[in-house]
């Protein structure tokens, strides 16, 4: 058993926690991949049509991980160590407050950035018209920031002080969509533009308030930005777009399908 009083043990404890942090990041990546799989395919689909050897390995790995971490959890409970309160419970009133504040923020940012934006370039439009309607491509504006980045909303710090964590850092995101303007923290790329336009379609079909409500509830449920269904769909369609830009598909149809199937 380790002792913090022993120098060698202290070094081993530091190394152990560094490796635990690495394992946590790998597990979060696996969780995100699994959530994308879950959102797109039912468990019955996987049971019937998945490549069985790969499915067997995934199930075995998940079972072994669950067994190992459950045993660790059992040991810490025996030692009287309480789990940390990683995720704070949130009331319906707080959800409604969050929806209102985020919707106001999105609306305010749209008013700031839309007048500064430019129409989508003819070169990008020639590719994107295979995936988006002409009316949407006419409506959306794009803006590439030079030397600045979109700041986090002013209510982030307050929310974090109240125990809410894992908010997406806006200044680190390639692009952000504020209703019908896509703002780029870095260089505008076709990939990032496609991703931003998926969100523009979601805003168009759902409306600002409903979109925001779904996003907040998805975040409260999954605790991570990339696993919120609205965001997961954008990544899924982005991957499909990258696989074959010549073979178009209707993003609007895909968004309508998720709405009809209540997948948000």
How would you portray this structure in words?
This protein is mainly alpha-helical and 264 residues long. It folds into two domains: 7-78; 92-260, no CATH class. It is built from eleven helices and four strands, in the order ααααβααβαββαααα. The chain has helices spanning 7-40, 43-49, 52-78, 92-113, 122-128, 134-139, 156-161, 190-206, 208-222, 229-243, 251-260, and strands at 118-119, 141-144, 175-178, 181-184. The chain has a four-stranded mixed sheet. It is globular. The model has no long low-confidence stretch (mean pLDDT 88).
Keywords:
264 residues, mainly alpha, 4-stranded mixed sheet
Q: What is the general shape?
A: globular
The tally of helices reads 11
Point out poorly predicted stretches.
none
Query: Using DSSP, what is the number of strands?
Result: 4
User: What's the mean pLDDT score?
Assistant: 88
Radius of gyration: 22 Å
Specify the biggest β-sheet: 4 strands, mixed
Question: Brief description of this entry?
Answer:
This protein is mainly α and 264 residues long.
Helix-strand blueprint:
Blueprint: H1 7-40, H2 43-49, H3 52-78, H4 92-113, E1 118-119, H5 122-128, H6 134-139, E2 141-144, H7 156-161, E3 175-178, E4 181-184, H8 190-206, H9 208-222, H10 229-243, H11 251-260
Parallel strand pairs: 2-4
Antiparallel strand pairs: 1-2, 3-4
């Amino acid at each position: 058993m380790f002792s913090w009083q022993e120098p060698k043990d202290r070094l081993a404890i530091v190394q152990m926690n560094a490796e635990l942090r690495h394992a946590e990041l790998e597990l979060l990546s696996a969780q995100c991949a699994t959530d994308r799989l879950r959102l797109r395919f039912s468990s019955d689909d996987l049971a019937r049509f998945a490549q069985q050897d790969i499915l067997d390995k995934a199930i075995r790995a998940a079972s072994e991980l669950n067994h190992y971490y459950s045993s660790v959890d059992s040991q810490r409970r025996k030692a009287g160590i309480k789990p940390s309160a990683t995720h704070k419970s949130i009331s319906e009133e707080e959800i409604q407050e969050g929806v209102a504040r985020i919707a106001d923020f999105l609306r305010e940012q749209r008013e700031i950035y839309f007048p500064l934006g430019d129409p989508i370039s003819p070169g990008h439009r020639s590719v994107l018209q295979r995936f988006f309607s002409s009316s949407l491509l006419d409506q959306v504006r794009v803006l590439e920031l030079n030397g600045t980045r979109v700041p986090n909303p002013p209510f982030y710090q307050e929310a974090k002080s109240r125990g809410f964590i894992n908010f997406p850092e806006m200044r680190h995101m390639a692009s952000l969509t504020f209703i019908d303007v896509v703002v780029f923290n870095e260089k505008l790329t076709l990939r990032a533009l496609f991703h931003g336009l998926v969100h523009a379609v979601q805003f168009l079909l759902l409306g600002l308030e409903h979109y925001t409500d779904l996003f907040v509830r998805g975040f409260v449920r999954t605790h991570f930005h990339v696993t919120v269904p609205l965001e997961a769909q954008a990544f899924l369609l982005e991957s499909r777009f990258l696989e074959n830009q010549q073979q178009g598909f209707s993003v609007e149809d895909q968004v309508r399908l998720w709405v009809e199937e209540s997948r948000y």
